[in-house]
Amino acid sequence: MKKALKLLAVLVIAVVLVLGGGILLEKAGIETPISGVANKAANTALDASGIKSKADSALRSNASKIAEKTGLPVSSVNSMIDNLNIESWQVTNLPADATATGTTSMTYDGVSATVTTYDDPSVVTVDTGAGEVTLEVPASAQDYIGYLGYL
Questions:
Q1: What is the pLDDT of residues 27-76, one digit of tens each?
Q2: Predicted local distance difference test score (pLDDT) of residue 74
Q3: pTM, rounded to two decimals
Q4: What is d(CA 151, CA 145) in angstroms, rounded to the nearest whole number?
């Protein structure tokens, strides 16, 4: 019995060290197997929610308003929306060396969000007040991140 308790204690300590170390590494911007699993679960939930399709639809239905604000032709705005390729955006970890360059607040369908951009255009962070998530921006969309303020 004492041997089983010692083994259990060692296992508990090992789990605490692994989880604690993983959390510390994640806070330092280093991806760990734990963050990989968490990101995969978040991506599955994000895909299942249909929110990416809703965001794409919202942009497309507001293309003329975006064109007015930017001074671009509607055809250019539609091309930008195509290049955003929102369906391919994935949850990721914020790189430790990413420096915020700006924030944009927006509201759609009663939901407010703040989008933070970085000197690394491959990521943005979206904060809805209920929590924040960092998304990997595909290369095709990175040139258009500066237009977020017009949405």
A1: 555 555 455 677 787 778 777 878 788 888 888 888 898 889 889 999 99
A2: 94
A3: 0.69
A4: 11
Which residues sit opposite 127 in a β-bridge?
114, 132
Strand partners, 90: 136
Rounded Cα gap, residues 137 and 23, in angstroms: 24
Q: Which secondary-structure segment (H or E) carries 17? A: helix 2-27
Residue 1 gets which letter from DSSP?
-
Tens of pLDDT, residues 89-134: 888 888 989 999 988 887 767 777 888 999 998 998 888 877 788 8
Is the Cα torsion angle 94, 97, 101, 102 positive or negative in sign? positive
Compute the distance between CA of residue 13 and CA of residue 73 in angstroms, rounded to an integer: 61
Checking if the pLDDT of 87 tops 80, the result is: yes
Token pair, residue 88, equals: 């391919």
C-beta of residue 90 within 8 angstroms of C-beta of residue 84:
no
- Looking at residue 35, its pLDDT comes to 58
Give Cβ neighbours of residue 58 (< 8 Å, ≥ 6 apart): 108, 109
pLDDT at 31: 53
Helices 74-84, 63-70: inter-axial angle, 10-degree rounding: 110
